[in-house]
Write a structure and sequence with these properties.
single chain, alpha/beta, 6-stranded mixed beta sheet, binds zinc ion
C-alpha cells in the first residue's frame, strides 16, 4: 500500500466535497439517516463521506446529487471534479476510528504544504515532548483516559509530520519568550532541550518572539494551513480543540498569513532562537 505524500494526499480534496455534500443535504431538508435509508447505504458510510474520511465514488455521487435535486450539468460536473480530487489513499485512512476536531485538524495538517503557527501560552503539539503533554493534561485536569488518547494523537501527528514524503513541507512556529520562561518543572527541561534541537536543526522554522518585542495582548494564537497545491487555506483560531474555530474564508486566511509574516519580523533568527532556548535551559531556576 502506497502512503500518500504531501502533494499527493487526497484529504484536502475529499474535505472540500464533504463540505458541499453536507450543505446540499441540509438544503434538501434531509438528515443523514434519511439519506442512508433512501439510498440503501449504511449510515456510517454517509457519515464517513460527509466527514471527508471516505472517498466519494462516482456512483455514490450520482445517487446523492439526484436525491438532493442537483440537476444543473455545470454543478454536477464541478462536484465530479471535486470527487476526482479526493481519489487515492491517505495514510490517515487507517485512523478513522479517531473522530474529533483533533483528528480533523490532523488530517489537514499532515498534507499541508505550509503551516504557520503562532503559539499562545503553550507549546504547539508538533513540538511537544510526551512529558510536557502529560504535565499539561494534569494541569488542565483532563481525565487520564482522554489524556492518553490526546497523547496518542500527538505521537501520530509528530510521526506523520516527519514521515518520508512529508519532510519537504514547510512548518513554521512563533513562540513567545514568556511561554518558554514558564517551562519549569513539572513541564520539564526536556521540553526546552527538544525545542532547541528542533530550532537548531532548521528543518522546521522555530522562532522566538523576545520579551517586549510585541504587545502580548496581540498574540491570540492561530494557525494557517495551506493546501498541497497552495491554492486553498484553512485558518484555525485557538490552539486546543476545546476552543478551536475553523475558518476557510480567503480574506481571513490571507489576513492572518500577513499577520504571521509581520510578527515574524519581530522574532529572533533561528540561530538566536536556539541559543536563547539553550540559555534558558541552562539557567538555574529563579
Ligand atoms: Zn494523506
Amino acid at each position: 500500500m502506497s502512503a500518500c505524500t504531501g502533494a499527493g494526499c487526497p484529504v484536502w480534496g475529499r474535505r472540500e466535497i464533504a463540505h458541499d455534500l453536507v450543505e446540499l443535504r441540509q438544503a434538501a431538508g434531509l438528515n443523514q439517516k434519511q439519506v442512508s435509508a433512501a439510498l440503501e447505504v449504511s449510515l456510517s458510510k454517509i457519515i464517513r463521506m460527509e466527514g471527508g474520511w471516505q472517498r466519494v465514488k462516482a456512483a455514490d455521487l450520482t445517487a446523492l446529487l439526484a436525491l438532493y435535486g442537483v440537476q444543473d450539468p455545470a454543478a454536477v460536473e464541478a462536484m465530479r471534479a471535486k470527487a476526482r480530487a479526493g481519489r487515492g489513499r491517505c495514510l490517515l485512512d487507517a485512523h478513522t476510528a479517531l473522530k474529533s476536531a483533533d483528528t480533523d485538524f490532523a488530517a489537514y495538517e499532515h498534507a499541508a504544504a505550509h503551516t504557520m503557527t503562532l503559539a499562545g501560552g503553550i507549546i504547539p503539539v508538533l513540538l511537544r515532548t510526551t512529558d510536557y503533554a502529560r504535565a499539561l493534561a494534569t494541569a488542565i485536569r483532563i481525565p487520564p483516559r482522554v489524556a492518553e488518547q490526546t497523547i496518542t494523537l500527538q505521537h501520530a501527528r509528530q510521526h506523520w509530520a516527519t514521515a518520508e514524503g512529508f519532510t519537504g513541507l514547510r512548518r513554521e512556529f512563533l513562540i513567545e519568550e514568556a511561554t518558554l520562561l514558564r517551562l519549569r518543572p513539572p513541564y520539564g527541561p526536556g521540553q526546552l532541550q527538544h525545542l532547541a534541537q528542533v530550532a537548531r536543526q532548521g528543518r522546521w522554522q522555530v522562532r522566538v518572539l523576545p520579551l517586549g518585542a510585541v504587545n502580548p495582548g496581540l498574540l491570540t494564537p492561530f494557525s494557517v494551513l495551506r493546501s498541497p497545491d497552495r491554492a486553498r487555506a484553512l485558518l484555525v483560531l485557538g490552539e486546543e480543540h476545546a476552543s478551536w474555530k475553523f475558518e476557510q474564508d480567503r480574506g481571513e486566511c490571507e489576513y492572518h498569513q500577513q499577520r504571521y509574516a509581520d510578527l515574524r519580523e519581530h522574532a529572533l533568527t533561528g540561530e538566536d532562537s536556539a541559543r536563547l532556548i539553550e540559555r534558558l535551559d541552562q539557567e538555574p531556576l529563579a
